[in-house]
Design goal:
Number of helices: 0
Oligomer: single chain
Order of helices and strands: EEEEEEEEEEEEEEEEEEEEEEEEEEE
Distance between the termini: 5 Å
Low-confidence stretches: 115-128
Helix content: under 10%
Shape: globular
Strand content: 35-45%
Radius of gyration: 18 Å
Number of strands: 27
Amino acid sequence: DGSLLYTGNEDGHVRVWETSTWNEIPELRFKAHRGPVSAIALSHEGKLIATSGDDTLKIFPLNPEEGVVGRRERLTIPRKHPANWIKFTRDQSGNDRALIHSSPEGTLEVWDCDSGKPDPAKPIAPSKDRIPVHRIMARAVLLKGGQILLVGGSFPNKVPHSDCYLYDPANRTWKKTGSLRTPRGEQFGLEVLPDGRVLAAGGWTRGGVALTSCEIYDPASGSWQTSVSMDIARDGGTCTSLADGRILMIGARGDNSREDWNSCEIYDPRTGAWTPTGRLKQAAYGIQSLRLMD
C-alpha cells in the first residue's frame, strides 16, 4: 500500500521510512556496502532486495531473519564497478527469474535469479550484451512489455546526452528509440506510469544546470513529449511509484546553491500536476528508493 519506502544512501546503509510521517524505522536499517549505495531493486515477489556499491552486487532477504542483527546477504557478486542500475525481470509466468544490471563501462549482465533457491543467482549471460553507447549515470526502467528502456546519462567527459535505447531480453538485442527533448545527466527520476508510459524528471543538462523540466515517453510511438515541470530544480533525486499510481520524487540538490534538499513532490498522472508533500527528516542527495509491496 506504499506505507514503507526503502532508500540506499551515501553512507552504504539501506534505510526504511514510513511514508505517512517520513520517520525512519531504525530497527530495519542495515549496512549493505562500505561506500555509497549506487543502485537498489526489490524483487516483484517481495522476497529479495538487491544492492550495488563499492565493487560488489549483493542480494539480501527483504525481511530480517530471526535472531540476526541487520541483514545477512544471500549472495555477494564481485564486480569491477558499482552498477548504474539494477532491475529484476519476470518470466512468462510472472515470476522473478533474472537480475539485470549495468556498470559504468557499458557492460550489461544478466543473472538467473530464483528467490526459491538457496543460491538465488548465477550468471546466465555475463558481459556479452554491451550497451551501444558508452555512458555513465544512465537510468533504466522495465517496460510493461518486458523490454528495458535505457535513458540519458553522460559521456565519459560528463557531457549529458539525450540518446535512448530499448533492450529486448528475449533476443538480447538493442535498438535506438526516440531521444529525450532535453539531455539529462547525473541522477534524474525515471519511473513507469500506470498506463505504461515513462516519466523522466529533473537531473542536470549542459552547463551543469539542475532541471525542473519533465517529459514523458510513449512506448507505442517511441517518442518523448514535454510535461509539467516540478516546483524545484532537482539533481540527484529519485522517483518511486506509489500504490495509487502517483509518482513520488524524493530529495536532491537544487541549482546554484548545491546544498542538499529534503523536500519531496508528488506527480499525479491523472491531473498531470506536481504537488509538494512532506519533507524527509534529513536531507538526501544521490539516494535510491523502493516502495515495499505491503
